[in-house]
């Protein structure tokens, strides 16, 4: 599959795919005799995995480390699991921060509701 097709299928820009290749997230993209990238099934599975992990806010650095470990094989299973657990903890912390921010916004909105109701009462009197 050509880069334009992969880009369209996964809604990732061709520039992003090239960047992923350059930093080692997609290290083994085959090329045709004319130099055009030709993504195989394993490459597409990696793109899907990367997209999923990025959607979960896994950092590029962590993904790069994960892929380097993956390339080394089953001897890194425990390290890969630990890396994913660490990223899960980071995501949980971020979710907790966002929930606190949401509570603050809800409080402020309720406060404005009270102010609006009070202002409308004053205008009616």
UniProtKB/TrEMBL annotation:
Pfam families: MerR_1. PROSITE patterns: HTH_MERR_2 (PS50937). It comes from the Bacteria. One of its GO terms (molecular function) is DNA binding. Residues 1-69 form the HTH merR-type domain. InterPro entries: DNA-bd_dom_put_sf, MerR-type_HTH_dom, MerR_fam. SUPFAM superfamilies: Putative DNA-binding domain. Keywords: DNA-binding. This is MerR family transcriptional regulator. It comes from Collinsella ihumii.
